[in-house]
Amino acid sequence: MALVSLWHSFLAASSMFTCLPAWRLANLTKEDYEHTIDWWPVIGLITGGVMAGVFLASSYIYSSLIALLLAIVARLLLTGAFHEDGLGDFFDGFGGGQSREQVLSIMKDSHVGSYAVIGYVLYYLLFVSVCLSLPVHIIPVVLLSSDVFAKFVSSLQVQFLPYARTSETSKTGVVYKPSRLIPLVLSVVLAIGLPALLLSPYMLTAFILPLLVGVALMGYIRRRIGGYTGDCCGAIFLLTELTCLLSIVSVIRIYG
């Protein structure tokens, strides 16, 4: 029964965090969706793997810039811009809201505000610029490792912070539950082992800063709204991922 529950929650995670119709493979319940955070870093293998694969394949035909843009588009199509929607709401909410109630209200508004637009432009300018400053041959590996690691860091919100809304006011109607032991151990192994294996052990130092940035952002949202929301999960994932890229470039430049 436990294995069936884990399998169903994995299918639910695949359905929630990507556009893959994994829900067709089983009769999924609300409880399965509540445990989707169990598998978020594992889903990073899919989303990051698609980015890496598209970049690698496209780079044989196109320039690195075009290959990278195609990789970004591929992940956006795969996820339905699920996390990017959260990032925009995060910028609008925390940028425009003063009180806790204002922040939560703005984040739930479907309209895109000026903070979101400016944030998107700056985010992708940085993302593309930083990626293109990496040696081309390691870009696919960095895209994959950063995706998995950043999803792991962002998933820690569910482990350590309360939910800022109620299930009734949640956008999806689902409140995530903390990760269970087996998926949590697997997530830790992937988050640490993947960059150590695909890059090099010394490159693990590049992942310290993203972890600290993720924790700092969690402290910030705890202070502002008393906990996390789904939008915060998406935003901290993308901001941590960007910090991974910046940190990896810094380590390469410093240590050669």
Please give a structural write-up.
- The protein contains 11 helices and no strands.
- By secondary structure, the protein is mainly α.
- The protein has one domain.
- α8 runs parallel beside α10.
- The model has no long low-confidence stretch (mean pLDDT about 95).
Any idea what the shape is? globular
The helix count comes to 11
Distance between the termini: 50 Å
Q: Using only CA atoms, what is the Rg? A: 18 Å
The secondary structure category is mainly alpha
* Topology pattern, helix = H, strand = E: HHHHHHHHHHH
The whole-number mean of residue pLDDT values reads: 93
Number of domains: 1
- % residues in beta strands: under 5%
What's the total count of β strands? Answer: 0
The helix fraction, in percent, is over 70%
The biggest beta sheet reads: none
Task: Please mark out the parts with pLDDT under 50 across 5 or more consecutive residues, or reply none.
Answer: none
